[in-house]
Design brief:
Structural class: mainly alpha
Distance between the termini: 34 Å
Oligomer: single chain
Number of helices: 3
Strand content: under 5%
Shape: globular
Number of strands: 0
Helix content: 40-55%
């Protein structure tokens, strides 16, 4: 089964605002956890390769 996650719409708000939103921050944190929820193993490997990308904390 496929589930969609919508974190914003760049046609309705600026990308920077979407990126900095609490919802997107929580999504990124979940993806960086040891067991990202609902992420298939193949995609998890791709996500692992992106760890550390994004704005500096």
């Amino acid at each position: 089964m496929h589930s969609e996650v919508s974190l914003g719409n760049v046609r309705e708000q600026p990308f920077a605002e979407i990126w900095a939103s609490e919802r997107y921050q929580a999504f990124r944190a979940a993806l960086q956890s040891d067991a990202p929820p609902g992420v298939p193993p193949r995609l998890r490997r791709q996500v692992d390769s992106l760890r550390g990308c994004g704005p500096a904390a």
